[in-house]
Each structure stands twice: as structure tokens, then as C-alpha cells.
Amino acid sequence: MPEYRPAADALVGVWQRALLVRPDGTRDAETNVTWVQGSSLYGDLRQPPGYPRHRGVLGLHHLGQDHLLSLAAQEAFAGELQYGDGLFTWHREIDFQPPGPFPDVGSLNTADGALVDRASPHPADGVIVEEGRYVAYREHWQAEERDRTDTAAARLHGRLDGLAGILVRVGSWFLYARDRREPLTGTESLADRVLGAASLARARELLDCEVSLGRVADGRWQVLRSTLPHREGRPFPMLPTTDGKDCLCVQDVDAGGTVVPLVWEIAACEGPGSLLAARGPC
């Protein structure tokens, strides 16, 4: 399988956002934002303050419209990070929200103002500042974990349905992203689409996009936060398949509540693939 060329050695790690300064000058230090960055592939999960935890939910089919609207307030995306001409571009190949009007492009600097490029050393104090290229925002990021040794990521392709997926692991952290089965197009917000859906079933389909963040300990993968409430606080059901070393199997639950085994082909990998497989047969 093809190997990725590292695009962001300076950024490999897990980052927590400490501050967002919006174009109008308002500030947000409350949204819970975690960015997991491999050598090229990355994932990002953002949940607003006061985001409700839907304990005991077994799937989107258990949620009514008010609950679905609370899910629509999340942001999450994953893809490949590229660098050129002093700017980083976060390609949002999987996006929980509809596509925005501008690409996600910005410059990065250390806290003392030094420009970060693809070959920079890790900032000594673990702090970087991101400034938008097309939108005048500023984000402050604090390193949570920086482990270049135990780092791997994979681009995933659904064997049966062609779905897109991404899996990134950095040290004890992982982020898994699975696209929805029908991509969102147009400029209407996700919340407005949920409100205007012809049925609850249709609204649930719109939200059936997974970005899950978790930790690995003693070979066990556990989800901490997710765009899908039934994933949170549970083991992540990822197992190696028995029919090929370049595949993974994930036990998914569709919007209607049906358990769906997803067999992913590993289309490309960066780092040791052994870091991306849980133990046991599928």
C-alpha cells in the first residue's frame, strides 16, 4: 500500500484548543476542541459548552428532534494536512457540517512569534497560534501529547459501500472518522436541514457521521467523546479481519438502529499499521 510523505512533523501530537478569537473580536475558551495530528492525516472534534451527554442511548433512532438539534451544534472533520508557501491547509475530506465558503487555511506560529513550517521542531512550551488566511480568526493550541514514535494513521475505504474513513493514533490517543452515506452539499446549515427534514428518520440520516475521540490502554480502545452519543464511554469495536492484513472491521450502528459490520480496506497508511489494530478476530 502507498505510504504518506510526512507533511507536518512539527505538529504530530494531540492538541487542545485554549482560545478562539473570532473575526468580530469575541472570544471562546469554553468549546471542547481536540485535534489529533499524524504525519499527514488528522481529525478534529469540537463540542460546544453545555453540550448534553445522552447517557444510555443505543443509537440515533432513540433520539427526538430536540436531541438531534443538539447534535447538529457540533463540528468535526478529518482529512489530510498539507503545507506550502508558509500556510497549512486542513483538507476536510470528512466533515460533520456542510462545506463552508472558504478553505480551511492558516499560518502557525509559536507563542514567541516564530513561524511554524513542516520541518520546525516541536515548540518548546507546547503552544502554537493559528491565524486564518481567508477568515480573520485566531486559535491558541496547547499540546496534550506529542509522541512521534507511537504514531500511525490510515485512510480507509469501505469494502462494500465505498464509504470514506480515517483513523489516526498518536500515543495513547486515537481519532476515528466515518463519513455519512450521503454527502452534504449546498450552503444550508446542518441545524436548518434537521429542522426541515421530512421525517425524523431523514433527520437522523443527516447526522449519521461519526468522529470519535478516545484513548488506548492495555490494548483496549475506549471512546471518550463522539459526534454519535451511543459511542461515548464505550469500547471502540475495531477488530482485525481474518481475511487480510490490510483490512479492519468496525461494528457500526446505522441511523435506524441496525448493527452494521463495516469492513474497511486500508487504502494507505503512515507509520506502523500494528498500532491501528485492536486485538481479537472479527
Written overview of the protein:
By secondary structure, the protein is mostly beta strands. Helices cover 7% and strands 42% of the residues. It has three helices and 18 strands. Strands 1-3-4-5-6-8-9-10 form an eight-stranded antiparallel barrel. The longest helix has 7 residues, at 65-71. It is globular and about 50 Å long.
What's the topology here?
Blueprint: E1 13-21, E2 27-28, E3 32-37, E4 41-47, H1 65-71, E5 75-84, E6 87-90, E7 94-95, E8 105-110, E9 127-132, E10 138-145, E11 151-158, E12 164-170, E13 173-178, H2 190-196, H3 200-206, E14 210-217, E15 220-226, E16 238-240, E17 247-253, E18 259-270
Antiparallel strand pairs: 1-2, 1-3, 1-10, 3-4, 4-5, 5-6, 5-7, 6-8, 8-9, 9-10, 11-12, 11-18, 12-13, 13-14, 14-15, 16-17, 17-18
Helix pairs in contact: 2-3
Largest sheet, described in full? 8 strands, antiparallel, barrel
* Alpha-carbon distance between the two ends: 22 Å
Mean pLDDT: 89
Shape, per Cα inertia axes: globular
Q: How many β-strands, per DSSP?
A: 18
Structural class: mainly beta
As laid out across the biggest beta sheet, the strand order is 1-3-4-5-6-8-9-10
Helix content: under 10%
- Poorly predicted runs: 1-5
Order of helices and strands: EEEEHEEEEEEEEEHHEEEEE
Strand content: 35-45%
* SS summary, helix count: 3
**Rg for CA atoms:** 18 Å
Summarize the structure.
This protein is mainly beta and 282 residues long.
Q: Key features?
A:
3 helices, mainly beta, single chain, 282 residues, 8-stranded antiparallel barrel, 8-stranded antiparallel β-sheet, disordered N terminus
